Amino acid sequence: MNRTAATVVLLLLGVAVVKVCLTGHYLRYVKEGLWPFLLASGVLVLVLAATNRHRHPKVAWLLPLPVLALLLVAPPPLGSYAAGNAGTALTRSDEYPPLPDGDPVKVTILDYASRAVFDEGRSLGARRVVLTGFTATGPDGAALLVRMILTCCAADGRPVKVVLDGRVPAEPDTWIEVTGTFRPGSVVDAVNGERIPYLKVEAVTPVAAPERPYE
């Protein structure tokens, strides 16, 4: 790869990174808190493009592939396919404080599932809760509500799953807001053997995919 070609590739890469930062699409790939570092890396690549003075190996021609993906395709966030190939990821807490006031009360899928599994639903009681996530198919064809959680970026994304006891959209990757109550019992995730709790569904409302798809 000659100097001119390398400069063009670096320029496109820098523009792609800066673009996803400014449009908010970076939230499909990394956690929100990494925005300053991602933007700084994009600017650094642009500086490298402006000061490029070296020849580069032929393998550098592979760089345009992710660049074109970011500029033209914009891959969607992780969805039902990723959820079906990874086990539900729950974290145990030392304590489960009372839910906030309000009826119903909005909680994250991770918070609900952790309370339902590790606290056996005691801190949920008969409270009505609202969860937002996308649909997927679970063990024995069960309808699932899923939200992906990130440690750093989409590469380490893991699903948190809840079995929906009630009528829900059958099409996978449909974003919905579900109002319901805790239902005792759980099913076993076939991927990692962990427990997936139930939610007794009262109402389902289709919603647009959120700007921040990951919890």
Automatic annotation (TrEMBL):
Residues 128-214 form the DUF1980 domain. Keywords: Membrane, Transmembrane, Transmembrane helix. It comes from the Bacteria. The chain crosses the membrane at residues 33-52, 59-78. This is TIGR03943 family protein. It comes from Amycolatopsis orientalis (Nocardia orientalis).
